[in-house]
Amino acid sequence: MNKVSVVVPCYNEEGNVARMCAAIKDVLTKMAWYEWEILFIDNCSVDNTPNILRALAAEDKRVKVILNNRNFGPDMSGFYALTQASGDCIVCLPCDFQEPPE
Q: What are phi and psi of 44, to 5 degrees?
């Protein structure tokens, strides 16, 4: 079975990460013919984003989290997340719903 990885870079997105995770899961669960993972990479947020991400990962093993120890910027952080994704296909989505998961 093929696997889809959804990479979601984030920085100070405490108001969006849980909703984004739920929205992505809603889309992916409708595609039963794929395995999937959601990989959030946090760019050293100073709000509650890291704690929310830890909780999301604890409740679903398909949700992975990378917490950067400093802010590497969107390009370097996003590139690193791509190297850590394990899917046959990788989709990148911003956490601010600029592009809807649907």
A: 65, 50
